[in-house]
Design a protein that fits this description.
This protein has about 120 residues and is mainly α. Helix content is about 45%, strand content about 10%. It has a single domain, classed as Orthogonal Bundle (Cytochrome Bc1 Complex, Chain D, domain 2), CATH 1.10.760. Helix 2 crosses helix 5 and helix 4 runs antiparallel to helix 5. The structure holds heme C. The site of heme C has 22 residues, from helix 3, helix 4, strand 1, strand 2 and helix 5. GO terms for molecular function: electron transfer activity; heme binding; iron ion binding.
Length: about 120
């Protein structure tokens, strides 16, 4: 097993963008929960399993929320979703948006591009 220490090319190399699920679990789940339902730590976080709401946002709205964040006032307290800015690559954002969509729509696989994303790509 020489390869173990050699750090030789692995099937999933370092350039491989993270899957939507991995990114979600690292960056979003602490507020939105593993399954899309707000956690106790962030009860005001949007329920991502609400399909009609998520569909009304569309891929663009979801992407915007991620990049710009979402301030929300709860009484005197500001409970915010952080702005992730350009921290994700375009490819990562696409699969992340796809993953968010899959939380409310079981017809979409976790790493599939969403209908909007496919249309957007075709239009580019
Ligand atoms: C610190 C807690 C926190 C984290 C981390 C967080 N969110 Fe949120 N998110 C919120 C809150 C709070 C809201 C509700 C904001 C509102 O009602 O305007 C929200 C709202 C949203 C919405 C709905 C936006 C809209 O326009 O209504 C989406 C989509 C979303 N989050 C996705 C994500 C994704 C994807 C991630 C990870 C990249 C993430 N969030 C990380 C707290 C968080």
């Amino acid at each position: 097993m020489l390869g173990l220490l050699g750090g030789c090319a692995d099937a999933a190399g370092p350039e491989q963008p993270m899957s939507g699920r991995q990114t979600y679990e690292r960056q979003c789940a602490r507020c939105h929960g593993d399954d899309g339902r707000p956690t106790k730590a962030a009860p005001t976080a949007r329920d991502l399993t609400n399909r009609s709401y998520i569909e009304s946002l569309g891929d663009r709205g979801i992407r915007e929320a991620i990049m710009q964040g979402r301030p929300v006032m709860v009484g005197p307290e500001q409970k915010t979703m952080p702005a992730f800015g350009n921290q994700f690559s375009d490819a990562e954002l696409k699969v992340l948006v796809g993953y968010v969509r899959s939380l409310s729509n079981s017809e979409l696989g976790p790493d599939e591009l969403t209908p909007d994303a496919v249309r957007e790509r075709a239009g580019e």
